[in-house]
Amino acid sequence: MRKFTSIAACLMAFSLILAACGGKSDNTSSPSASQSSEPASSAPASTDSAAPSDDISSKKITISIYYPTPDQVERRALEDDKIKRFNEKYPNVTIVKSDWQYNPNEIGIKMGANEAPTLFNTYATEGKFLAEKGWAADITDLFNNYEFKDQMNPILQNQFVIDGKVYGLAQQGYVTGTVVNKKMLTDKGVAVPSYDWTWDDMLNTAKAVADPGKGISGIAPMGKGNESGWNWTNFLFEAGGEIQNVADGKVTAAFNSDSGVKALQFYQKLKWEANSIPQDWALGWGDAVGAFAQGRTAMVIAGPDGPVDQALNQGGMKPEDVLVFPMPAAQAGGKHTGVLGGDFLVINPNASKDEQQMAFNYAVFDYFSDKGLESLEANIAARKKDNKYFVPPVIQYFKDDSEYGKKVRDVYAKHDNVYVYNADAINLLDGKPEAQYNTQDYYAAMTNIIQEVFSKKGSDPKKLLDDAAKTVQAKFYDTIKL
């Protein structure tokens, strides 16, 4: 385990690696983004935005907000506390709790029926999609008037800056990694690989720890839902591949490359050579992460904080037995590239200007504030009382080297129930944003391919990828006008 201060070095490295990514986003949801991250409200959060041009504190205003699901007890408690404190400052505002969780297949219906919340959650992949559809309010003026705009983490915030305009507010982020159950490896006499590991290391480790007769898998790659395509995309990136190319006013499928073939062949090895994946491999995010927390698989691929939180707080594992690895490099000396994702808040463009202002005020209410730090510390202490751990996001909404970042680290250092990521692992993370266009459709196409690879021995990776690329190209990419 490491001291949390090493995250600063990590994020400085991210800034160099990802500087070219500012302002880029795509139109899909990263499956893990919604399900694997700690809530923004459990991280320190806010002050208010700049005062509006007229005094809206005396106007009766109603806003609806994203509210955590019933199973997220701690997150609901934090949100309730935030609502109470917000109403102490703005007693004129009525806050309605919305139980709708963002879904790219439902957002159009919600907007058309005027049923979308005033403030709703979404993922790093959705910026361009929501902006182009007119389903995210242009909050550029609100953001530019925000006192702490220059302290927002550009690695995250820039993903919702589209053509120079701001369409969302960063909460927290991640780079996809592999979470490993060290105890399962040790109990089987399997050596824990180096953090600077390779595909071969992952394959050999998964094969050695798997016990199919007892229903134990070495690794559980997601095989159901679009998260299956999302999981596999990490290997496409590690092999040097791309989802699509954008040039000369055209979007062209690129995932059927030699890199794509190589990545798909690795999946074939996990299934047919190593026999290391679950016999019932049709697992969605919750299924795979649940299997990890229950000790039925030794490895799972996701944004790290979600599986770690479930393993510690639901599975009863010990922190020293839950290791966060970067994604493995395709070969020794290669990059440990993982999908860069995150959680964001978006304001409904159908809301009035006063409602948008109050929604913005609510979104940043705890950002950069002492109250936010107090809420964070109270959350950590409450978890300690309940014998639970606090698992921080890998990437925060604020710059890690900021004054506020130091205050957060100081809070973490005071408590022994804060999970600490290993410095060597974190420093190897190489975040890569997803594609700009129709990534959800690409994920769906890849999910079909992965299911065929897992169900039919001897499938032809090149043919499968070429057929999928042809379909995605004709059905989606050819309709895009740049």
Automatic annotation (TrEMBL):
Keywords: Signal
Residue spans of biased composition, Low complexity class: 25-55
Alphabetized Pfam families for the sequence: SBP_bac_1
Region (Disordered): 24-55
Signal sequence region: 1-20
Residue runs in coiled coils: none
Domain of life where this protein originates: Bacteria
Record carries keyword Signal: yes
PANTHER family attached to this UniProt entry: ARABINOSE-BINDING PROTEIN-RELATED, SUGAR-BINDING LIPOPROTEIN
Name of the molecule in the record: ABC transporter substrate-binding protein
